[in-house]
Amino acid sequence: MPATDLPFLIEAAEKAGDIASQYSGPNAKRWDKPDGAGPVTEADLAVDAYLLETLMAQRPNYGWLSEETEDNTERCQKSCVFIVDPIDGTRSFAEGSRTWAHSIAVAQDGEVTAAVVYLPQRELMFVAAKGEGARCNGEPISVSQRNGLTGASILATKNNLDPMHWRNGDVPAIERAHRPSLAYRLARVAQGHYDAMLTLRPSWEWDIAAGDLLIREAGGISTTRSGEALKFNNLIPQLDGVIAANPTLHKNLHQQLKPV
């Protein structure tokens, strides 16, 4: 139900921004998760608690998947599920940066149908609903139309450009950039500010679900690194990397990558 889900996702994201912004990133209490899973702050937990209560009150028959909530595989029996990252870019938040996002999505039968990526301290609200296009701050957005790899601006970490990942070790002559939040990277590509986004390591669903719909509704394609469609609400909520771009550039990127 993307048309009816999106308005309350937007409202919840705005309130989440108010909650998170009450905390001063460097002064917020912080813990390290077990097994090197990264940091979490009291702001992450406060936002997660708010979103869990608020969104599930709106749709009590939906499942719930969040980075900061202990997973319950009963969600896999649900047709619809919320997929949430309370603060995507926690390290950035904890350092006092403004570049972190709330990522909120609804997936139905494995496909994202409504999505919000909100950066409250940058005043950027990216939204999309299936079949209704993607917008930023109310204005329609679309992916870049650049087709060639040479000189293309691609959001990726340095290790993605290791020759081991590319056919014959031939790394394309791209212009690499980076943003700490995967959701924000996908949103910026959907907006056309960058030509593509690439991550080759396993990626958690909550980091990419909302951005996946933004890309698709902005005229692009997002797949795993092997070119398979992104399917969500898996028993193990990870996907094998992400490639996102307009259809032609996506094809060129995928063809240059070494098969896995």
From TrEMBL:
Pfam families: Inositol_P (PF00459). CDD domains: CysQ (cd01638). Mg(2+) binds at residues 67, 85, 87-88, 207. Coiled coil: none annotated. One of its GO terms (molecular function) is metal ion binding. Its cofactor is Mg(2+). Keywords: Magnesium, Metal-binding. PROSITE patterns: IMP_2. Signal peptide: none annotated. InterPro entries: Inositol_monophosphatase-like, Inositol_monophosphatase_CS. GO terms for biological process: inositol metabolic process; phosphatidylinositol phosphate biosynthetic process; signal transduction. Belongs to the inositol monophosphatase superfamily. This is 3'(2'),5'-bisphosphate nucleotidase CysQ. It comes from Tritonibacter aquimaris.
